[in-house]
Amino acid sequence: MKLFECQNCGQPLYFENTRCMSCGLVLGYLPDIGEMSALESEGDDWRALGAPDRPYRFCANVTHGICNWLVPADQDEPLCRACRHNRTIPDLAPAGNLDRWRRLELAKHRLFYTLLALGLPLANRVDDPDNGLAFDFLADASPQGPRVLTGHDDGLVTINLEEADDHARERIRTEMGEPYRTLLGHFRHEVGHWFWDRLVANGPQLEACRALFGDDTQDYAQALARHYQNGPPPDWQDRFVSAYASSHPWEDFAETWAHYLHIVDTLETARAFGLRIQPRIERGPEMAARIDFDPNTSVGAERLVDAWLPLTFAVNSLNRSMGHPDLYPFVLPPPVIEKLDFIDRLVHPPAG
Q1: Selection from 166, 245, 178, 177 nearest residue 213 by Cα
Q2: Quick check: 168 and 162 in contact, CB under 8 A?
Q3: Residue 159 and residue 147: Cα distance in Å, rounded?
Q4: CA-to-CA distance for 172 and 181, rounded, in angstroms?
Q5: Contact 126, 134 (CB under 8 A)
């Protein structure tokens, strides 16, 4: 993600800020131009200093304190580009559910920042009632009853509200033997399934995808059952980005898709800070990187990975210095880099 600053006073801003801590102006995000803007009141509407030519109003979910995105005032749509993909929001009566929903939305809005920056097609259930991307945020009815399963089904992404609790998510991560489990990671993975349906299934890239990820026609339920019973193959680290990616080609694609978004978004942040990696060690030239390109454009997976590997070595080392686990606890073998390149070409198809 890029850096933002207040147009009124120059104060650096976070993506989630709602008011400038320096000059006090209200802030809102303009998804159409990808800018956080300071705002001035104009009657019932707002004038955005970052785009002063038209009035704006806040997404209707501002009333819940879970969204700071803006909608042009002349549009009838009450919700912003991200919130209009919600099909079901949590029951807000139980204590803590509003805060859990807020955490889900913070992650989901960061997801949509990247999807919009990449120029990817985004249809909601109003645009496409049968195949649009939609989200259900649900809680288990009771500890003894059936559990809400986080997952994807024909464009509908379901997230168990429990995932918004750090303690519960860490417990599940440990039980599942996962090195990494975050809300943002969930969103990136699950929308990968939707983009497989949109960009790969029944399209010209299907056979090339199968050549890399495997035969997606194999029985999905049986493949998952086999994975949970027997675990990943012994050589999974030579061919897959995660153990779960080895369970079925659909999961391999979704995991690789999520890691592509991890890489693009983090490299954009590194670029915004002007980061350079130049290790002061004798055998370190291959670990040097200058992140001076826009990762949201078509640069190819090789260039992304050439910058990503030195950056992750550096941030993992910083985390270890603080006694934390590695920020990016994954290895990218050549077959995974080839899959990332497929994703990059899918996101940035050649002109013509």
Answers
A1: 245
A2: yes
A3: 11
A4: 9
A5: no
Residue 264: burial class (beta carbons within 10 Å; 0-12, 13-18, 19+): buried
Cα three-residue angle 177-179-181, rounded to 5 degrees: 95
Burial 38-77 (b: 16+ CB within 10 A, else e): bbeeeeebbbbbbbeeebbbbbebbeeebbbbbbeeeeee
- With a threshold of 0.90, does the pTM exceed it? yes
Count of residues in the chain: 352
Strands (E), 109-186: 134-138, 151-153, 156-160
- Give residue 304's Cα distance to chain centre: 17
Residue 305 tokens read as 């990975």
pLDDT tens for the 352 residues of the chain, in order: 999 999 999 999 999 999 999 999 999 999 999 999 999 999 999 999 999 999 999 999 999 999 999 999 999 999 999 999 999 999 999 999 999 999 999 999 999 999 999 999 999 999 999 999 999 999 887 676 688 889 999 999 999 999 999 888 888 888 888 888 899 999 999 999 999 999 999 899 999 999 999 999 999 999 999 999 999 999 999 999 999 999 999 999 999 999 999 999 999 999 999 999 988 887 767 788 999 999 999 899 999 999 999 999 999 999 999 999 999 999 999 999 999 999 999 999 987 6
Q: Using CB atoms within 10 A of its CB, is residue 134 exposed (0-12), middle (13-18) or buried (19+)? A: buried
* CB neighbourhood size of 115 (10 A): 21
What is the distance between the alpha carbons of residues 13 and 10, in angstroms, rounded to a whole number? Answer: 9
